[in-house]
């Protein structure tokens, strides 16, 4: 029997798609607080404003993240959700679960929480929605001792690292994303569970430039698989595609008749740098001009593969809108070795160099991408000890001034800015 | 010269006691010892949390530190409002 009338939410049950409203009504049979979720969300739809407040001191002992305090601002009307905290659980790398594990998580949450989940949150965690403060410690004990799983990150912590399926399922992956994700999660446990930074910091790992976890758009430190040498070409398979022996795109768009495969129209003309051409029936690529868009490889996976000298490109500074709107990460390190035997030395060195700088220079609630924007890319490259290359430049310069450092000029120079200002004060 | 850990802890508690707002960002503690490395200040702040002398306050996206005596949790605040 519904506790609240929800005419606006009921509209969301119409149509062919699954509805969270139906799920909540079903869940309310065993968890009556779900009626109050429906009531409060209905009120929010009417008032056109959220009635959730978030933040507070809730957490589990020793951890400074993983639990987000959540409260209703109309608790008398909806007492079932007066205190309704969110728990973030660190997801397995590549989101590989057994059904046994998923059942265990659901049973745990049915015992200690509302039973409502969000699989998965934007960072990648399993998000368990709605519990009270007294339930947090017992939940945490069972989660860590029985399920052997941990909380994820929140607040000014390192956020839960996430990665694509990598080499477990994908022939294009240029490094073992799951191994690196697991390594970084273990290495930076302190940063993950206790606040360390001016603001949040996210790692994401994609095995190839297709970037299936959207690391470029969603992480402060994106490790994206790449190769140094030439795209591998199987010319016999290229001919096979031209003759129609293999479906293009791995048959992914086979639901409609697109006509005969046309390599010129569907591959060569769509190359963003125009670095491909046919010589007779042989496909040629000017590899130094390749920008790693992956289009040709995606269309003809039997014929083209990433090169053999594999590693990753590191892009820094993506974020979703908070202060100045969304921004993609900027390519900073064109190629690094991703090497398990050296304990990912090159990746770790770059992470810690960025952290040391950002912890000192970053302002409160400023993502590293915003700090880079504030101080300028040339300054950041200098701190990272990276020589600028054309790929770092987004557009031709519009500033006519060139600033030289004293060490860049023969004989150098000395300049006392205070003395200069004294003489030039208005 | 950087302060010793105990001196830094005392300076941080003094800062958290006197600050106009009860919640402080980690960077607010940097000025307790300008010679200390940010990571060291962070480690000392987290030690103070373990010792129960500071506590975390998190909005979900940002985490701050506060003296337990200067901050109330929502449950206590709600109860106090009900008792009025």
Q: Mind explaining what this structure looks like?
A:
The complex is a heterodimer of chains A (426) and B (84). With 426 residues, chain A is an alpha+beta fold. Chain A has 3 domains: 7-145, 2-Layer Sandwich (Alpha-Beta Plaits); 162-228 and 311-392, Sulfite Reductase Hemoprotein, domain 1; 232-305, 2-Layer Sandwich (Alpha-Beta Plaits), CATH 3.30.70.20. Chain A has 15 helices and 15 strands. In chain A, the strands form 5 sheets. In chain A, strands 7-8-9-14-15 form a 5-stranded mixed sheet. Chain A has a 4-stranded antiparallel sheet with strand order 2-4-6-5, covered by helices on one side. A two-stranded antiparallel sheet of chain A has the order 1-3. In chain A, a hairpin with a 2-residue loop joins strand 11 (276-279) and strand 12. In chain A, helix 2 (20-27) packs antiparallel against helix 3 (33-47) and helix 4 runs antiparallel to helix 5. The longest helix of chain A is centred in the last third of the chain and has 17 residues, at 345-361. Chain B is mainly alpha-helical. Chain B has a single domain (5-83), classed as Winged helix-like DNA-binding domain superfamily/Winged helix DNA-binding domain (Arc Repressor Mutant, subunit A), CATH 1.10.10.10. Chain B is 44% helix and 10% strand. Chain B is built from 3 helices and 2 strands, in the order H-H-E-E-H. Chain B has helices at residues 5-18, 38-50, 74-83, and strands spanning 55-58, 63-66. In chain B, strands 1-2 form a two-stranded antiparallel ribbon. In chain B, a hairpin with a 4-residue loop joins strand 1 (55-58) and strand 2. In chain B, helix 1 crosses helix 2 (38-50). The N and C termini of chain B lie far apart (51 Å). Chain A binds chain B through residues 54-59, 62, 64-65, 68-69, 71, 75, 82-83, 86, 133, 154-157, 190, 194-200, 322, 356, 359-360, 363-365, and chain B through 25-28, 37-39, 42, 46, 49-50, 55-63, 66, 71, 73-75, 78.
